[in-house]
Amino acid sequence: QVSLVESGGGLVQAGGSLRLSCVASGRTFSNYAMGWFRQAPGKEREFVAAISRSGGGTTYADSVKGRFTISRDNAENTASLQMNSLKPEDTAVYYCAAKERIGVLATRRYDYWGQGTQVTVSS
Question: Which of 106, 112, 107 is nearest to 77 (CA)?
Answer without folding.
Answer: 112
